[in-house]
Amino acid sequence: MKYRFVSPAGFLTALMLAVFALGSSLSAFGQKVDLRVDMPRGQRSIGVGDEFHLIYVVSDISAAPERPNVPGAKLLYFDRTGQSSRFQSINGRTSQSVSYTYTATLRAQKEGSYSFGPVTVGGTKSNTVHYSIGKAVSAQSQSGPSGQGNAASAQDPSGSSAPKFIGKGDGHLFLKANVSKSSAYEQEALVYTVKLYTTYSAIKFIGAASAPKFEGFVVEESKSRDAQFNYETYNGKTYATAVIARYIIFPQMAGSLKVLGNTYTVSVDQREYFSDPFWGSMSYSTPLQLNVTPNDLVVNVKPLPTPQPADFSGGVGQFRLSVSLPSTDLKSNQVASVVYTVSGDGNIKYIKLPDLNSLYPKELEVYSPTTDINASVGASNVSGSVKFDYSFMPLEQGSFHIPDVTLVFFNPASGQYERSVAHGFNISVGKGSASDKSQSRSRLVFNPQLLPADSSSLVKERTPWVTGFLYWLWYIVPVGLLGGAVVAWRRYLSQHADMAAFNSRRAGKVARRRLKAAAACLRRGDSAHFYDEMLKAIWGYLGDKLKMPVSELTRENVRGEFESIGKADENLDNLLRLLDDCEFAKYAPGADNSANMRQIYEQGSEAIDKLEVALAKTADPKINSDSASAYDSYINQK
Predict the structure, then answer these.
(1) Sign (positive/negative) of CA torsion 471, 476, 482, 488?
(2) CA pair distance 528, 473, nearest whole angstrom
(3) Are 192 and 244 a contacting pair, CB within 8 Å?
C-alpha cells in the first residue's frame, strides 16, 4: 500500500472548500417558521374550557420565539418540545436542515372566531392561523346521552335544562338529571336520577351540598345507586358514568311542576401534561375540587280521569286487597279482629279503605283501625304492604254476614280505575257477657195482646193530681237543690278567697298525700327518691301551715313562728331533726341511705300527726281561723 503525503497548504485549501459546500447546502433549505393549531383529542372543534395546542415549527433558525399572547385563550405552558434533523445527498452533494418544535398549551376562555400571527423568529415571519371557539362541549346538547333506554329526559323550555358549572368542571365532569316520565298522572310514581359524567382518572369524594327542590312532589329517597362506573358515549366523547342519586317522587297536583337540581361537591385528580426535552411527554396529578349542579327539569302532570268513583281510595299504582279473619265463631260483647292487607307498587302509604261501619251489619260495632306500613323504596317504585287491623264487637247473638270490601285504585299503566275485592265471611255469634251498651242496643219485645178494660174503673171518681203533695214536690225539690247549690258555691268562694288560709287548712291532707309517695319509694327500696319525698312533705307542710313563701322558709323562721303561737314543743324539734336526717342521708357521700328509711318514715308521719293535732286546737287566726272545724275535720280524716 502506498501513502500520499499532503502539504499543510493543500489541507487548508480542502477544508475551506468543505465549509463552503456545507453552507451552500444549508441555504438550499432556507429559514422558515410554521404555525398550526391542534384540536382537543377526540374532538373536531374547540369549546369554552377545552385545552388546545399552538405548535411552532422553527426551521434553520437558532433563535427561540417569545411567549405568545393568544386571543380568546389563556396560556398554561410554553416550551420547546422537540428537535429534528434532516440530511440529504444528491449527486454527491450533502445538505442538512435542523427544525425545533415549540408547543403552547392553551385553555379556551371566550367564544368567537380568532386569528393569530404572524410571529417573527430570528427575523423570519410565520404564517397566520385561524381558529374558532364555541360553546362548552357539555352544554351543547339539551338531550340526554345515548344509551338511556326508554327513560325520557324532561326538558325545561326556558333553556334551564343545561348543566350548570360552578368552578372548573368544564367538559371533563358534569351532572345530568333525568326523570322516568316527562308527562305523568297525579300521584304516579316517577324516578328522578342524577348521573355523573367524567373523564378524570380518579374520583376521590362526592357529596351533596344541598338537597334537590321538588316543588309539588312527595319524595321518597332510594338507596339504589351504581356501585361502579360504566362507560357511555356522549356527543362523540366517552365518559365514565354512575348514578349518584335516585328519588321516587309523587306529583301532588296537576300542571307543570319543577325539579331544581342541587349542588354537589366533587374531588378529583387532574392530570397535567408537559413535554420534557429529554424524556418527551410526561404528566403529573393535582387535586381539584369542583362544585357542579345538574340541570333543572319540568314534569307535566295530568289530573286523574273524571268522574272519579265514589269509593276511590286515593291509590295510584297496582294494588291487591286481601282479608284475614282468625275465627268465625264469636261471642257477643267480646272484641274480635279482622285484618285487611293492601299490597303492591305505588303510593301505598296514602291508601285509605272504605268506612266499614257503613258496610258491616249494624249489630257489629267497628272501631278505628291500627295501621302497620311495611314499604320499601326500590329503584323504580315504592312497594310493600299496609295492614289495616280493625277491631269490632258483636252486640247481639245470631248469624251475620261480613260483606265484601272493594279497593278502588287508579292504574296509570292502563289509564283506568281498577278494583280489588276482599271476600266476605259468614260469622256465628254466641252468647257472651252482658253490658250496658248491648242492653241499650237490644230490641224491646211487646205483647201484642191488650188487657180487657174494667168497666168499674171507668166510672170511679178520682182526685185531680195537681192538688196532691207529690205534684208540688216536683217543684219544691229542684228549688231546694238550687238553694243548696248556691249556698255551697258561696261557701266555696269564701274558702278560696284567701288561698294562703285555704292551703293552711289543707296542709295536713297534702302532707299525708306526699307521705304516701314516700311510702311507695320505701316499698320499692328507692332511697334516692324516698328522701326527696320526705323533704317535700315536711317542708311543704310547714310552709302551707304557717302561710310562709318558699323564699322565707328556713329553720329559724319556722321556729320563730311556732314560738310566737306558743307551739315550739318537742313535736317541732322532732320534725326539724328529721329534716337534718333526711338531708344528711340524701347528700352524704357513701352513706347507707336505705338503713333507716322505715324509721324516718314512721317518725315523720308521727311528728306531722302530733303537730297537726296541736295546731288544730289553737285559736291563733294566723294558723287556724276556724279551730274547732279544722280540728274536727282532721280527726275525721284520721
Answers:
(1) negative
(2) 61
(3) no
ω into 118 cis (within 30 of 0): yes
Positive or negative: CA dihedral 540, 543, 547, 550: negative
Q: Which amino acid, 267?
A: S
Cα 149 to Cα 512: distance, rounded to the nearest angstrom: 80
Residue 72 C-alpha cell reads as 380568546
From the list 289, 268, 297, the residue with the least C-alpha distance to 194 is 297
> What's the CA gap between 334 and 331, in Å, rounded?
6
DSSP SS3 for 608: helix
At residue 446, φ and ψ (nearest 5 deg) are -110, 150
Question: Is pTM, for the whole model, over 0.70?
Answer: no
Peptide bond into 307 cis (omega under 30): yes
Residues paired with 36 in a beta bridge: 55
Cell (9 digits) for 150: 326508554
pLDDT in tens, 8-65: 445 444 445 444 444 444 444 578 888 888 766 556 678 898 888 888 888 888 888 9
Tell me the CA distances in angstroms from 127 to 56, 74, 414, 513, 636, one per residue in order.
10, 21, 68, 107, 122
Residues in the chain: 638
Residues 6+ apart with CB under 8 A from 261: 164, 175, 177, 194, 212, 293, 294, 295, 296, 297
